[in-house]
Amino acid sequence: MKALRGLFLGLGCLLLSAEGLKAEFNPALPKGLSQIVIEGKKKLAVGLGQILALTVERATGYKISSIETKQALRDWQEQQAMNPLTWSNQVVNTRSGNLLSSSFVSSKASGLPYSRNDSVIASTGFSQKAKWGLSYGLTYQRASRKGFIAYFTSPDQPLSKFIALDDAYIADSWIAEMKLPLLKDFGSIGYLPEYRGEALFIQAQHREQKANRALLRQVGGAYWDLVAAQKNIQVRASAKELANRVLKEAETKFRLGALDPTEVTQAKTQLALAEQELLTEITKKRLIEDQIKVFLDLRNLKLEYWAKEEPQIKPLPLPEDKLLARALQQDPDLALLRAGISLNELDLQEANNADSSNLDLSLKYQQNGYGTFASEAARGVSKQGAVDYQVALTWQVPLFNHQGQRKRIKAELEGERIILQLENQKAVTEVNFYSLLQTLRLNEEAIRLAQTGVRLNEELYGKASARFKVGQSTSFRVALAQQDLAEAQMRLNQALIAYEKTFLDLLLMTDQVFNLYPLSS
User: What pTM does this model have?
Assistant: First the structure.
C-alpha cells in the first residue's frame, strides 16, 4: 500500500512539473531580443529599432504588400522577353474542277469536257514578329497534284468515268516572307507592353512603400503607447505607495487620538482609487502588448514586454530644407502620380498609333522544285528558273475614325488631370511637412511646460505632506496634492509620447527611419 501511495505521489508531482513547464514555455526569441528580470518576472526587453526591424521581418502586412510587387515584377520580366516563335503545321486536301473548251481535247471525244484536280498540300514553318514591327517567316511546303477529265454527254446524263490525264507530280517549295510596317505599328510602339509593365512595377513598389510606411507608423505608435502605459504604471504605483503611506500615518495618528476618523476613511478612499487607477494602466499595457504581438506574429510568445526606449527631445536628422527635399522625393503618392504620367504617355502614344495611316511593305520569295518522285522534286528546288516572288506595298488610311480621336482626346485630358494632381500633391506634402515641424515644436514647448508643472506639484505635495505630519493639514489635502502630482506626471508622459510619435512621422515621411534604425527597406 505504501508503494502504491508513493507511485501515485510521484505521478502527481510529475504532472504538476509538466504543467509548470508548459506554463513557462516560450518559443525561441526572435533575433536581437533578450530577456530581463524585473521585480522577479521575466520580461522581453525591446527598443523601437528592434520593434520596427521585427515589423519588416515578420509582420504579415509587410508580406501581403510585397505580393503585388512580386507579381508586377514577374509581369514586367515576361514583357521583356522576345515575342514567341510560332511553329505552324498544315495539311490541306483539295478537289477542284472546271469546264474546258472542246478545243483542249480530241475532236473524236463526244460531250463537254470537265477537268478535275486533286491535291494534297502539307506545310511546316516558323514565323516571328520583332517588337519593332518586322514580321518574318520561313515555310517548307510539299504538294501532290493529279489531273482527271470526264465528259458531259448530255444535260440529263451524269459525267462519264474520270480518266487520268497524266501521272501525279510532286512540288516542293521553300517560302520566305517578310512584312515591314512603315508608319503604323513601327518602332517603339511594339515596346509599349514592356514600358507599361515597367511603369506598373514602379507603381506597385510605391504602393508597397506606402503600405509599409503606414504599418511602421502603426507599430511605432503602438510601441510609444506601450512606453506611455509603462510610465503611467510607474506613476500610479508611486501614487499607490504614497497613498498607502498617508493611510498608515493617518491610522497612527487616529490611534493616538490626534486625528478624526473621517481622515482615515478619506485616506482609505484615496488608496482604493490609486489601486483602481494602477489596475487600469496595467490593463492598458496588456492590451497594447497583445496588439503588438498580433502585428509581429508573436502570439505564442507569452512574455511581457519591457520598453527600453526613453522618450526625449531629439535634434532633427537633417536641416529643414534637406528634409523637405527628401519628403518630396520619398512621398509615395507623388511617386505614384509620376508613374501615372508615364502610363498616360504610353496611352497617348498608343492612341496616336491607332489613328495613323497604315503603310506596309510585304516581300515573298519562293523556290520550287517539281518531279514525279519526292526525291526528284526536292533536288529540283536548287535549280534556277522555278522561282516565284512578290513585292507589295499596302496603304490604308482611316477615314472618319471618331473612336481613335476620342481615345486620343481622353488620353490628353487624363494627362492634364494627373499633372494637376501632381502639383496639388506637392503642395499637400509641403504643407504636411511644415505642419509636422510645427507640431514638433509645439510638443517641445508642451514638454517644457509639463516639466515645470511636475516640479511645482512636487513642491506642493512635499509641503502638504510635511504640514500633515505636524498636524497642520488634513489627509484630504494631501490626497489632492498627490492626485495633482500624478496628473502632472501623466501630462508630462503624454507630451513626451506625442512628441515621439510626431518625430517618428517625420522620420517616415522623409525616409530617415532607415538611416537611424537598422532596418532593411
Answer: 0.73
